[in-house]
Write a structure and sequence with these properties.
- This protein is of the alpha+beta class and 113 residues long.
- 24% of the residues lie in helices and 22% in strands.
- The protein has 3 helices and 5 strands, in the order αβββαβαβ.
- The chain has a 5-stranded antiparallel sheet with strand order 1-2-3-5-4, with helices on one face.
- β1 and β2 form a beta hairpin.
- The chain starts with a helix and ends in a 9-residue tail after the last strand.
- Bound molecules: adenosine monophosphate and zinc ion.
- Zinc ion (ZN) binds next to α1.
Amino acid sequence: MENCLFCKIISGEIPSTKVYEDEKILAFRDIAPQAPTHILVIPKEHIGGVDELTESNSAVVSHIFVKIAEIAKNEGLSNGYRVVSNIGEDGGQTVRHLHFHILGGEKLSEKMS
Ligand code: AMP
Ligand code: ZN
């Protein structure tokens, strides 16, 4: 997908600090962390966001969540963490490529909005 920041990270055009990669997904550190551990997990296929998921493109989401659990374990987030996906303008999504934030490493705010 042209002009998609995360597609450029997948292609290597824009560098990232990779945490995990396989043929379907990539996980890398957020450039502006909002918690001591802040990782983004994205599918390699361009999907705009949760609002663009369908029965035919959504299998990657279950794969992402299995890997999120593994990544969190590897990062030492044994006391818990938060997984967030912002959707659209009201949801605060700034990059229109499906991504899940893993936030942890401290007691997170009880406020979610
Ligand atoms: P969202 O606001 O939910 O769309 O999340 C987009 C996230 O991408 C933000 O947390 C940004 O800090 C992060 N981000 C933007 N550019 C980069 C980049 N080049 N490398 C890593 N993370 C980035
Ligand atoms: Zn993309």
